[in-house]
Design a protein that fits this description.
homodimer; alpha+beta; CofE-like fold; five-stranded mixed sheet; 6 helices; 24% strand
Chain lengths: 257, 257
């Protein structure tokens, strides 16, 4: 008998600043929201709060754009210093158009602007258009250390998912998407499972972590700073270990080229 | 204060056959699952049960493949009659490779095999590899008529979402994806919303219906025939009207070409 999937918003998380003890703050708001961690729960975190806690804030006026960054900035109508940071974070530029810069991030996955966020970033001197926020250096590692700390404090086995809003090649609108994961598989392989007629399933790989990312993103809304953390209960697959690398489409299977 | 998002599996739906009264069966299993429809609920249905109720079952041995279908069947290593049906359902072929046939469906969206499903289809003479299942002719219309019938019987205002499993150009694994919608917007426009610093949000369009599709798909699992219907409660955006066409990326914005 299938059980419900429930996603609880963690209301009341304070504004995260570089150096903040994010797992400690999460444990506090869990209590404030009358939620007690159970085995099998998954904490879903907006990338922004993880990046901020890790101090991944850069000041554009301190970045010297390269010639390539200036050239791409012209094509894409973006700030050259911003493009310079995107290039430093990227393994490969895939598409440039006015308003659009799609890259393969050094972490392997494809996204716009290497996931660098302009809005809602404050630096040491306050808030301004001059500050941008980069993805965590190692989002799987970030997820793992948050997981270990919360497991140590609660004695429960959990998963942690770090998500961002990504566009799609073929459809309009962004959806919540995995950028880091710990404690469960991003990709679920159903090979060998049979349907009710005994047919072997043909679509065998489900991006279950991305489906959960979408679910949590619905609650976070786009103003993810307001509710940047969600507790998911009733995730239907067993916890184990995982990496965002499971979702990276190898170049020879790339449908984009 | 944000509220939880809850997704309840509708256990016990019988095998759907052509001509079945799907809304009536859904109302019955809702009761059997001790769920009472509330205003704002969204019923999420696997495409398969809608297609089956509508009799969208074809027998491959009765399909005469065209020369183009035979050519593409060779490239993609697929059955020529199957490819013929894909072509009839498609506006445009986008990618052909061994094992892969990506098209723009006549309905506008991009998907593999025009959404035609081979597994778990039974015809009038039983079950076999010879039967395939096509998408509903008008999934928005299907969603709308299910919505109207259930609203009439319950007196509540609801949404209906019809979903399928789609691959992505840039990432491995399938995710639950909208193919038909009624009663709420597929794309939520957050233009003009401000974040907590007063910055206008830059990512303004969220494919909220696809995020919900992913959430429901998690519960359905890939063996969607077992739990092909999910009740979603706590959807954070207001109900209104909607169409899958909101999610179709116009050709001039296509990031794929």
């Amino acid at each position: 008998m299938a059980v419900p999937l429930q996603l609880f918003p963690l209301n009341g998380l304070p504004m995260i600043k570089p150096g903040d003890d994010l797992p400690g703050l999460l444990l506090r708001v869990l209590t404030e929201n009358n939620l007690r961690i159970e085995d099998g729960d998954i904490l879903v975190l907006a990338q922004k709060i993880v990046s901020k806690a890790e101090g991944r804030i850069y000041k554009l006026s301190e970045i010297e754009p390269s010639a390539e960054a200036r050239r791409i900035a012209e094509t894409t109508e973006k700030d050259p210093a911003f493009v310079e940071l995107v290039l430093r974070e990227s393994a490969e530029v895939l598409r440039t158009r006015p308003g659009t810069l799609i890259v393969r991030h050094k972490l392997g996955f494809v996204c716009a602007n290497a996931g660098i966020d302009h809005s809602n970033v404050s630096g040491p001197e306050g808030t301004g258009d001059d500050y941008v926020l980069l993805l965590p250096v190692d989002p799987d590692g970030s997820a793992n250390s948050i997981k270990e700390r919360i497991e140590k404090e609660t004695g429960k086995i959990i998963g942690v998912l770090i998500i961002d809003s990504h566009g799609r090649a073929w459809r309009l609108g962004t959806v919540g998407t995995t950028i880091g994961i710990a404690g469960f598989h991003a990709l679920v392989d159903l090979r060998g499972w049979e349907d009710i007629y005994g047919y072997k399933l043909r679509i065998t790989q489900v991006a279950a972590a991305d489906e959960l990312a979408g679910a949590a993103s619905l609650i976070m809304g786009q103003a993810a700073e307001r509710i940047p953390a969600v507790l998911a209960r009733g995730y239907p697959y067993p916890l184990s270990s995982g990496s965002v690398q499971e979702l990276v489409r190898p170049k020879d299977m790339d449908l984009f080229r």
